[in-house]
Amino acid sequence: MSITTVRRRRRGARRLVRAGAVGLAVLASSAVGLPSAAGAVTVTIPLAPPEVGVLLYPVENTGPLTVEGEGDPFAAGTPVDVEWTGGVVVQLPAPLDGGAMDVSLKLMPTEDGTPTRIYSTTSAAPDALVVTDLGNGRYGVTLPADDSTGGPFGALSFDNVGSAGPGIEVINPVDYLLEFTGTGVSLVDLAPQILAFAQVPCPMSSMSRCPAIPVDAGAQFGITVPPTSLLRTLGLGTLDDLVLGLDKLDAHGVPVDDETIMLTDDPALVTVSDPYNATVTLPASTPGGSYGLTVVQATGTAGSISITFGELKVTNVPTTAPTPRIVNAGLRSNTGWGEEQVSHTGGGVSPMVGVGGGMVLIAGGGAGLVLRRRPAKD
């Protein structure tokens, strides 16, 4: 079943990482009721999703994403300077494949103006756009000559990017903003980055709720990214920059309030032993019940991010355990971006991920993606 066509079944919630100058470091925290001596790891959760959805974004326009909420993959950002009759060379992340992609170039008088001329790989001359397969995921695009009417801005779009392996689906085109600054033969290198999302243990296109993983309050559980994981196939999945949150769910799998237990806010709770293995101590004070687990991972310095969803079932809770207080303090960006509540049938978690001036709502049960901009105040 296609990730892009599956019915989104999870309700939107204000969750996890929020945008703006204030980052995760200022989230409220206090005592969490840790046991005096943590026990052995009782269960290990492999981040080996059967499916991964990939959003490509133009890092040269927007800047890299980080787990602190910097960068915005959907902002036009800073144009890339190019030349008429020059070219660009795009490097797709492995194992993505551009053999069947459609490429178009819309010329515009301003950055967000109405296109005055469109070149594409599906158009006949004189509006044909020439794209050459250079091998190893590199594709060269020959830019047109100045016709004295189009430009100087251009929107260069790469659509229908595929994958060389099963289980990975690119669900959006990547659009670059260009600015023509003269005529020449210069080549400009572009390397779009990845915002990936997945679910364990069942696929995101599943029409049923995933089984919850039982963990005792006060116990330890492991997180591992095995060598065969699709995240590692995409060059993602390292745990060095890790954000880990829990959201209490009701009987239908819907978040019950606005508080997220931020486990990575307390270094005593999460130990990363190597780039692909971590041990997490679940506070003994965690109330019993179902929790949505969200794992956000940043890989490298260029800005690729992976977000993986799961569900825990907290059991064997001490009767006198206090309520944990490591929570998302409800921080809100002042950059003009807001959150949109989205209703779906069924249950689950839909974290709101901060991306600088933007908010990305990823529906945990499908390829849901929502952005809403607040009207500017006078």
Please tell me about this protein's structure.
By secondary structure, the protein is mainly beta. It folds into 2 domains: 24-53 and 195-373, no CATH class; 77-191, Immunoglobulin-like (Sandwich). Helices cover 2% and strands 40% of the residues. The strands form 7 sheets. Strands 2, 12, 15, 16, 18, 19, 22 and 23 form an 8-stranded mixed beta sheet that branches. Strand 6 and strand 7 form a beta hairpin. The relative contact order is 0.26. The model is unreliable at 1-38 and 323-378 (pLDDT under 50).
The strand count comes to 28
Output the radius of gyration.
Answer: 22 Å
Q: Uncertain regions: pLDDT < 50 for 5+ in a row?
A: 1-38, 323-378
Number of helices: 2
N-C termini distance = 47 Å
Characterize the quaternary organization of these chains.
single chain
Give the overall shape, derived from the CA principal axes. Answer: elongated
Largest sheet: 8 strands, mixed
Helices and strands, in N-to-C order? EEHEEEEEEEEEEEEEEEHEEEEEEEEEEE
Question: What is the averaged pLDDT score?
Answer: 76
Fraction of helical residues: under 10%
Number of folding domains? 2
Beta percentage is 35-45%
Q: What structural category do the secondary elements indicate?
A: mainly beta
Question: Topology, pairings included?
Answer:
Elements (H helix, E strand, L loop, with lengths): L40 E6 L5 E6 L1 H4 L17 E5 L2 E5 L4 E2 L4 E7 L8 E4 L9 E6 L2 E5 L10 E7 L2 E2 L4 E3 L3 E10 L3 E4 L2 E7 L13 E4 L3 E5 L5 H4 L7 E9 L5 E8 L7 E5 L2 E5 L7 E11 L4 E12 L21 E2 L13 E4 L2 E5 L6 E2 L1 E2 L5
Parallel strand pairs: 1-17, 2-12, 3-13, 4-14, 15-23, 16-23
Antiparallel strand pairs: 2-15, 4-9, 5-11, 6-7, 6-10, 8-9, 10-13, 17-21, 18-19, 18-22, 20-21, 22-23, 24-28, 25-26, 26-27
